[in-house]
Backbone:
């Protein structure tokens, strides 16, 4: 019995394209809060506007902002305390994104875009972590706000580039999926006689 949507995923090529399209959508959704958070950080210019931002639900939904908020409360900094901080702040969205990337690893492994995306995200995490540690040691609040604005610029730039890369890949995958839909699979049943 064929279902009405079977023609969308009746071959391995169609399933691979559909899976990749879903993974790219989830990946773009994952990057979007960081762009918004970056714009929020860039617009902060005073103590009051910075602490007014603490009530935004966006802060609890993004990994790096949870790290920044928890890093502020640390009394001493060491590699083990920062590692523990990175581990404890992994949330549902990060687990979902990790599972999506593992599921699509076989598809993405041959693509240079994956290497670029992973490198961009690693650079973002390392640079932002360094800037947070520097800003926590700054002498004045205006210097700390300046570092947070730089972090916001990094968020906007890196994650916008990541979204553009994913969107371009999404368009290429959609075109390939559309071409694979041109082929129809027919089920042939053989009757065996004894």
Residues:
């Amino acid at each position: 019995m064929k279902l009405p949507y079977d023609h969308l995923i009746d071959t391995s090529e169609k399933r691979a394209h559909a899976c990749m399209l879903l993974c790219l959508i989830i990946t773009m959704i994952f990057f979007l809060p960081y762009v918004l958070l970056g714009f929020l950080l860039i617009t902060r210019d005073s103590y009051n506007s910075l602490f007014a931002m603490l009530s935004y639900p966006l802060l609890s939904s993004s990994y790096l902002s949870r790290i920044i908020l928890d890093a502020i409360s640390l009394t001493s900094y060491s590699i083990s305390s920062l590692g523990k901080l990175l581990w404890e702040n992994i949330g549902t969205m990060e687990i979902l994104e990790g599972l999506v990337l593992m599921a699509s690893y076989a598809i993405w492994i041959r693509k240079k875009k994956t290497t670029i995306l992973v490198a961009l995200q690693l650079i973002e995490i390392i640079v932002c972590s360094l800037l947070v540690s520097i800003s926590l040691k700054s002498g004045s609040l205006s210097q700390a706000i300046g570092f947070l604005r730089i972090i916001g610029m990094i968020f906007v730039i890196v994650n916008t580039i990541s979204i553009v890369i994913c969107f371009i890949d999404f368009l290429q995958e959609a075109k390939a999926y559309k071409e694979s839909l041109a082929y129809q699979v027919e089920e042939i049943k053989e009757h065996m006689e004894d």
Q: What stands out?
A: Residues 141-180 form the longest helix (40 residues). The radius of gyration is 22 Å. The mean pLDDT is 77.
